Amino acid sequence: MPFVVLGVTAGIAAYKAVDLCRRLVDAGVHVAPVVTERATRFVGTATFDALASEPVQSSLWDEVSPIPHTRLGQSADLVVVAPATADLLARFAGGHADDLLTATLLATRATVVVCPAMHTEMWEHPAVQANLGTLRSRGVVVIPPEDGRLAGGDQGSGRLAEPAHIAEVVLELLAHRAAVADRPVVSDLAGRRVVVSAGGTREPIDPVRYLTNRSSGKQGHALALAASDRGATVDLVTTSRTPVDPRIRVHPVETAADLEAAMLALADGADVVVMAAAVADFRPASVASSKLRKTDGIPDLVLEPTPDILAALGRRRTEGQVLVGFAAETEDVVRRAAEKLARKGVDLIVANDVTAPDVGFDHDTNAVTILGADGATTEVALTGKVAVAHAVFDRVVRLLATPE
Ligand code: C5P
Question: For the segment 213-233, what is each residue's pLDDT rounded down to a tens digit?
Fold first, then answer.
């Protein structure tokens, strides 16, 4: 059972940490809450005591033996601080250890996630942003706040990310950690440059509406992490705004046209290119410059095809480059994927049947068939998306080692 320390600091959003705690416990996580003394003025410890896996601790002196700051820090698979105040970020960035939470943060080698929440002026202050920059550079995952209503009726950026979203990121990081722990460390992509695309593109209709698809970007992000863990330098071109491991260079995009420009530029000279993104096949032929009004009647939406980026990459790929495509299918999965493999000129196609339970879009799990231009086929039964990513790179590494 994964062990998570849930740090709660003194912000009005502290009550939302109760929901986060419940979601993690429901997902089978052992949650040890560390609620700072000042945070207990915002949220009652009795609530956490009832929901969490062990009683709340606030002080370095709650337990005499074993010493709690090392026990919690050392046992944790992950520490998440939600909400994280500006003060906590400053003390963590500065290496303070004068209360149980900061001491736990210093005493852990686990993944650390911070979820800032504060007023917009504080959030935008250069001191806060500099502290976040320091923490990010040390590998801390930051789940940024959202825009919305803040304490005191103010409106703006600084509202704690939704507990459901935080729980999703935490569970994904735990799944990644478990998948990595089960694998022997191999650096078989060291010195290689890998480019991965991820997520569903968004094709605007007018300034407020767009056409998109069900892709979450999770498989593409898992591919980027797996390549990075195997020693590659990774560029991730993504429509998803999920926080990404700081070793990975992120290129945020929205539309098929953005994604095409980024991929064509980055693919030049790359050793491996993986198109996991769900690129729109059609987009509105023209984008209205102002919001279409329903009082003007139902608009005639004229669509035009988007360029096939993977096929373009197939035509212009450089010597020795390994090109991987994806095929999300609903019927005749392997036959259609094999046909795509040939038509798009790729080395590998990763096919999945998105109608199967727990497979594909927005799930943390996937089941795929990897088809190669060399005729070899690998079946990967239902497993985590990181494990699927490693199965893909196992095939890629074989191709890099034995160029045609
Ligand atoms: O033809 P289909 O969309 O099923 O092919 C899927 C593969 O092609 C994926 O790797 C996807 O990233 C890529 N693709 C693309 N450009 C498009 C459509 C799909 O690169 N316009």
Answer: 999 999 999 999 999 999 999
For residue 326, the CA-to-ligand 1 centroid distance in Å is 7
Kindly give the distance from the C-alpha atom of residue 309 to the centroid of ligand 1, in angstroms, as a whole number. Answer: 7
DSSP structural state of residue 351 = E
- What's the pLDDT tens digit per position in 65-103? 556 678 899 899 999 999 999 999 999 999 999 999 999
What global pTM score does this model have? 0.68
| Superfamily per CATH, domain 3-174 | Flavin prenyltransferase-like (3.40.50.1950)
CA–CA–CA angle 175, 355, 275 (5° rounding):
60
213 is catalytic: yes
Q: If you measure from the C-alpha of residue 276 to the centroid of ligand 1, how many angstroms do you get, rounded to a whole number?
A: 8
- Indicate if ligand 1 lies below 6 Å from the C-beta of 308: yes
CB 22 near ligand 1, within 6 Å: no
Per CATH, domain 187-401 is 3.40.630.190: no
| Ordered DSSP codes for 47-115 | HHHHHSSS--B-STTS-SSS-HHHHHHHH-SEEEEEEE-HHHHHHHHTT--SSHHHHHHHT--SEEEEE
Determine the straight-line distance between the first and last CA of the chain, rounded to whole angstroms: 45
